[in-house]
Design goal:
- By secondary structure, this protein is mainly alpha-helical.
- Helices cover 72% and strands 1% of the residues.
- Helix 7 (103-133) packs across helix 16 and helix 15 packs across helix 16.
- The protein starts with a helix and ends in a 6-residue tail after the last strand.
Amino acid sequence: MGKGKHDYLNEVRSNENDKMQLKRTIGYFDGVNFIIGAIVGAGIFVSPTGVLKYSLLNVGVALSIWSACGVISLMGALCYAELGTSLPLSGGEYSHIKRALGSLPAFIFIWTAMFTKPASNATRALLFAEYATQPFYGICPAPELLKKCLALTILWSLGILNGRSVKMATWVQTVFTVLKMMALSVIGIGGIVLLVRGRKENLVRFENAFSSEIPDASQIAEAFFQGLYAYGGWWSLNYMAEEMINPSRNIPLTVMTAIPAVTLFYLLVNISYLTVLTPKEIVSSVAVAVTWADRVIPSVAWVIPLSVAASIFGALNSSMFTLGRLSYAGSQSGHLPVLISMLNVHYWTPAPAMIFSTIIASIFIIPADLITLTNYFGFSVWLMIGLTCASLIVLRYREPNLQRPYKVFLPVAFAMVAVSLFLVLAPIVWSPKVQYIYALLFMLGGLLVYLPFVHFKLHFDFVDKITCYLQLLLEVSPAGGKYE
């Protein structure tokens, strides 16, 4: 007897389930939590002062720039949504740049990202350690060794968690995103309540919001730079596109939910700060949310430092999750050692990629001077965003028949390329520093690795022996094979 159609479909599904690959376990709600978790860190609680400072304390201009930065971030995220739905691969910008612009630009991207992204994770881990230990030391500074040990503990705890279970990592992300949004809700609703009461001291900053000095073009540009930095992380969803359930639907829907939600909360929180504090007090405050809480809810002001720590923890978890997927994608393309693209045979997670990215982040924690070097790579973020949006334009013309479940209005992509170009050049032109040259030379230095090992495929036999040993030790298998 031949097989019936039902039996054949079951066999196909069984073969797909047996194949070693990342599983689609991340749904719409999980995606929203990852984006919000990646964007909202400590900045909105501690120092949301850059926009107000460069707006010359003009409340109306500052709030307008916060809104405009949210719109620009949404525009960029919609461009990424088209790429993520048409090419649902791990690796985010890296995978899209490689498809549209070729292997070399993609390698330069991952070469730079393997330096800047782990450094960013190390910074978050150290900041978490700062807020977690400070309550035990009062006005005295916590010992540096203690903070570094705690930071390493947090890094490796999250690294192991993400390497063992995607579901557990998404659960942790959900919990800490909810906690940070609850804290922002307390601040936002507190401001609304004070405004509704209509006291003059709470309304005075908004009655003539645009009456103070108007900043010039360079100051507005710097304010935009500060605001867009606060929205950083909106691009994180594409790193997990390969694991999204129904990416054609969920990626655009997730983006259209998360970015406007963050924009709304950012506006409400800033309005709440301005309701209680003067612009000068905000700019001079070391921790704005703490100052706000001391005046509005002094009996429970201790909640704010805990909220900051929770917010940093959530952002760190999201960043480590996405960095693991970037390493995984780079290895699959031959730009990183082959071991990094293997999956654990028990959990079907990119465990070697998580270990690799966690080791690099750990190196940055030990000598603090390394992290300060990454401050001069800020322009590289927008360079890669610009290249990614340019990739969308290239693919529209080169591959017009590529299936695109979601298509962004093409002028939006051109606008994002223009914005990215401006944000790359602005800091270099207005405040040139020799460190920018060093950063550029480091990026181009990737050619010294790319040419022999990627282009000419230079290979050493002993690497295969090390890979085989580590493969057995870590119990990992190449992705794409059938596991029995």
